[in-house]
Amino acid sequence: MRRREFIVGLGGAAASPAIWPRPARAQRPDQTTLPLVGLVNGGSAVAASDRTRLFRQGLGENGYVEGRNVTIEYHWLEGRYDRVPALIADLVRRRVTVIATPGLPQAAIAAKAATTTIPIVFGVNEDPVKLGLVANLARPGGNLTGVNYLQADGVGKRLRLLHELVPKAVRFAVLVNPANGAGAEARLRDVQEAAQIIGLQIQVLNASTTGEIDAAFATLASDRPDALFVAPDAFFNSRHVQLVTLATHHRFPAAYPHRDYVAAGGLMSYGSDPAELGRQIGVYTGSILKGAKPADLPVMQLVKFILAINLQTARALGLNIPPGILATADEAIE
After folding, report:
1. How far apart are CA 55 and CA 286, in angstroms?
2. 176, 205 Cβ separation under 8 angstroms
3. Which of 83, 84, 267, 283 places its Cα 20 to 30 Å from the Cα of 103?
C-alpha cells in the first residue's frame, strides 16, 4: 500500500449506502464433481468483498479457479456466531474438501472439535497454540493450519494513536460485541491494559445487533465520552457504515479496526490488512487442494499494520493531525 496515498471524494459517511443484514445463505453451484471449499465468514458478503476476492486470487496462485476446477460454498453469518456449531457440523457431515475460516476463531475451534480428517485453514487474531488449534507454529501437526494476525499489538497501538489525535481526551468509550465470546474478552483486556498505561478512563458498551448499536450510541450521546474505540469484530465490520454514520452524527472522534471504516468517513484505523489475510488463506487452501498437508504448512503471521486517516473527518472534528502521525500514515484519505 502506498504511503500517504490521497483519495478524493471518500470523506463522508454518506459516500457509501447503508448495508442492512441479510439472511446468511450458502451459494452452491452445481459442481458436484469438483473439490468443495466451505468458506465461513462471521461478517457479510459486502463487508468482506475485498477479502473474498483476494481469497480467490490466492486460490488462483495455485491454479484453482472457482467454477472451473473448484467450487466455493460461501456462508455469511453477519454476527450470528451462535450458528457456528450447526454450520460446521453440516460441512463435516457433507465431507467438504477444505474448511476455510478467515477471521473467525469460533469456527476454527468448532471445526477442530468436529473433524480430524478434513483440512481446516484458519485466520485468527489470537495465538493459535494457546487456542489449541495447532501444536506449534512451525509444524502445526494435525489437520489445521492458517494465518495468525497479531491483533493484541494493534489494539494497544490504536488506542495510543487515538489519544495522540485527541490529546485532551480522558474518557474513552469502548464498543465490543459480547457475542464474540473469548475474542471480545481478549480485545477488551488489551484495551484496558493500554488505557491503564496511558492513564485513561474506559467505559465499556456492548452491542451484538443493529438495534443494540443504535442503543449504544444513544448512551454515548447522553454520557458524552471524549472518544470512541471500536473493538475488532466481524459483525462490526459488516456494520461499518452504520457505525461511522452514528459517530459522525454525534461528533465522536473514533478509532476503528481497518481502513474500510476510514473510507466510509471514519477518523482513523490501525490494524492488520484483512484483504491480505484473505489472500494468504486462499494460497494455503490452494496448496492443500494440490496435495499439501496442513501439518506441514507453518502458520503464517501477518506482522504489518496499516494506519489510515481521514483528513476531511479530522477537519470536521476540529482536530490537527500531528505531523509525526501523518508522516507514518500508510493512507491519508482526503
Report:
1. 10
2. yes
3. 267
- Residue-level pLDDT at 150: 73
| Residue found under cell 450447526 | 86
Please check whether residues 278 and 144 belong to one and the same domain: yes
pLDDT of residue 295: 96
List of E strands, the chain: 5-7, 36-41, 71-76, 98-101, 120-124, 144-149, 171-176, 201-206, 227-230, 254-256, 268-271, 300-302, 306-310, 331-333
197 falls in which pLDDT band (50, 70, 90)?
very high
Contact call for residues 140 and 166 (beta carbons, < 8 A): no
Do residue 116 and residue 223 come from a single domain? no
121 residue type, one letter: V
Reported as a single tens digit per residue, the pLDDT across 266-287 is 999 999 887 888 999 999 999 9
Q: How confident is the model at residue 151 (pLDDT cuts 50, 70, 90)?
A: low
Q: Are residues 210 and 293 in the same domain?
A: no
H-run or E-run covering 163:
helix 151-165
The whole domain housing 89 covers: 31-150+273-302
User: Taking the model in full, what pTM does it have?
Assistant: 0.82
Strands 71-76 and 5-7: unpaired
| Position 92 in a domain | yes
Phi and psi for 52 in degrees, rounded to 5? Answer: -70, -40
Q: Residue 22: is its pLDDT beyond 50? A: no
244 is a domain residue: yes
Q: Could you list the beta-strand ranges (E) of 62-199.
A: 71-76, 98-101, 120-124, 144-149, 171-176
Would 1 be classed as within a structural domain?
A: no
